[in-house]
Design goal:
The complex is a heterodimer of chains A (about 150) and B (about 130). Helix content of chain A is about 75%, strand content about 0%. In chain A, α1 runs antiparallel to α3. Classes of the chains: A mainly alpha (about 150), B mainly alpha (about 130).
């Protein structure tokens, strides 16, 4: 893992969490969407908070795709969940929201999970593809043993 | 009814997200290391090969379903329930799906990490 790859993982965490919070704020302004008025969802894309959220989520998506090209899904998802911790810290220190003891415990568990996964290998090693000659040799050997 | 809509949206988000994640992960593994390809073939060739990959397109469709389900859920339930509940269930679902469909080595370390993160995200809702 290089420094640049850790930067990509940090981008996934940051863009995803901030993008989600912008979308949440926008949807609260739009109001409830009912099954019979699904066109309200189309109107939602004119809301500036939703637009900002979508832009950040596109950046999140690009970083996520880059990370998935060189790391396992079960590595990328826990490793980037540090975004939830960032979001709670922003809520506490920027938005001055109340962060309950249960939330602090949640933050500790997520941080522990991230630390746990970050120390392991990023990619499941896969055997190199066999050539036809190798396969023929294996078949011949298996036949010889029987 | 509000409660039923919220949990139906959460279930839709989790199912579509897990499907999308598995498809996108498979597609990106087949495309190869984006950084390496970028250096050797240039950015347009990389973006083109990603956008033309059929599994990538299917993954995008699944993610779009998850996105609109999330918007639907956020409009009915509190963000402090919808976002963490769907995210924590998606972590567990992804660990199972990655083992079954992507044949990733989900060892004890990864199981514990997924469980810790899923519990932590659920606690954020309290």
């Amino acid at each position: 893992m290089t420094f640049r790859k850790y930067l990509v993982l940090a981008g996934v965490a940051l863009f995803g969490s901030v993008g989600d919070s912008l979308l949440s704020r926008g949807m609260k302004q739009i109001g409830n969407v009912s099954v019979t008025h699904l066109q309200t969802l189309l109107l939602a894309v004119r809301n500036p908070w939703i637009v900002g959220g979508i832009v950040l989520l596109l950046a999140f998506f690009a970083a996520y795709m880059i990370a998935l090209s060189w790391a396992d899904l079960t590595y990328v998802l826990p490793a980037t969940s540090i975004g939830y911790v960032l979001l709670a810290l922003i809520a506490k220190f920027v938005l001055h929201e109340q962060v309950t003891p249960a939330r602090w415990l949640g933050i500790v568990l997520i941080t522990a999970g991230v630390g746990f996964i970050a120390g392991g290998p990023a990619l499941t090693p896969t055997p190199p593809p066999q050539s036809e000659a190798d396969r023929d040799l294996e078949v011949a050997n298996a036949g010889g043993h029987s | 009814m509000r409660h039923a809509y919220t949990w139906a949206a959460i279930a839709a988000v989790v199912t579509a997200s897990v499907t999308g994640d598995v498809l996108l992960s498979r597609a990106m593994k087949q495309v190869g290391d984006v950084g390496e390809l970028w250096r050797h073939k240039g950015v347009f060739a990389v973006v083109g090969s990603i956008l033309r990959h059929p599994l990538f397109v299917l993954g995008i469709v699944a993610m779009a379903v998850a996105f609109f389900s999330l918007l639907f859920g956020l409009s009915w339930g509190d963000v402090s329930l919808v976002a963490p509940a769907s995210a924590s269930l998606t972590f567990v679902g992804n660990a199972i799906a990655a083992k079954l469909f992507l044949h990733e080595r989900v060892d004890r370390r990864r199981c514990i990490a997924a469980a810790l993160v899923a519990c932590g995200v659920a606690l954020l809702a309290l």
